[in-house]
Design brief:
245 residues; alpha/beta; globular
């Protein structure tokens, strides 16, 4: 059963989506991310992916209060990313109620710090963010390309115990053009032990079914919700009909 993880991206305290990570291609969908999160929970969803886009751009957490509101007003298991660069940032995210954090840029720029966090907090609370453009890892809100190839980048952290990896194919993100299934299949074939979270391009329930059929463990989706391409009640009912308790 594929794990379903709706997403909330935050700029200026609002629920937004970008296209291909371009801050100049921003659409504001809702003014209250916490209200959106409560709606997800009411349908039945248990997980939520939250990205502080201001934080990713500014290189420090910005929307801490929004995270606090979401975790105070719901029982969702929240993973939070964007702007986590220092020990103070990661502590701030956990103190604000995040169950897990997604770490991407630091894993590229400061591997020793990432390894220290992995040892301190445990692999169950750390998600490796592997955001890919043209086969290379991008960092700092997708503003910079690191030059590191995806699979070798992942290997050292998988060898160290990482099991949760969130991979966004940037060219797909926010486009509703369908997910990069071939890329995810290659990742799973190389590292079958991964709990891989696919992200980017999901446009329909059929896309999610295709990811499940390909053996992808989890999927994050956002714009398709806000653009009305995915009916969350239908999605939830499909999964529960397919996998009755």
């Amino acid at each position: 059963m594929i794990e379903l993880i709706p997403a909330i991206d935050i700029i200026g305290g609002q629920c937004v989506r970008l296209t291909k990570g371009d801050y100049d291609q921003k659409t504001v969908y809702r003014n209250s991310p916490a209200e959106v999160a409560k709606e997800f929970e009411q349908i039945g969803f248990k997980r939520l992916h939250v990205v502080d886009l201001d934080g990713a751009k500014s290189k420090h957490i910005v929307n801490e209060q929004v995270l606090k509101a979401i975790t105070a007003e719901t029982n969702l298991v929240v993973d939070f990313g964007g702007g986590i660069k220092t020990d103070a940032d990661i502590e701030k995210a956990f103190s604000a109620g995040a169950s897990m954090v997604t770490i991407g840029s630091i894993a590229v720029t400061d591997p020793d710090r990432f390894m220290g966090w992995l040892e301190k907090y445990g692999a169950s609370r750390i998600i490796l963010g592997a955001d890919v453009r043209n086969g290379k890892i991008s960092i700092n809100g997708w503003k910079e390309d690191s030059g590191e190839a995806l699979l070798p980048f992942m290997k050292k952290y998988i060898d160290a115990g990482v099991r949760n990896v969130l991979c966004t194919e940037i060219s797909k993100d926010g486009t509703l053009a369908g997910p990069a299934i071939d890329l995810y299949k290659e990742m799973m074939a190389t590292y079958p032990e991964l709990h891989l979270i696919a992200s980017g391009g999901v446009s329909s329930i059929d896309d999610i079914k295709a990811l499940e059929a390909a053996g992808i463990p989890a999927v994050v989706f956002g714009k398709a919700i806000y653009e009305g391409k995915i009916n969350l009640k239908e999605l939830w009912d499909w999964q529960n009909a397919s996998y009755p308790v």
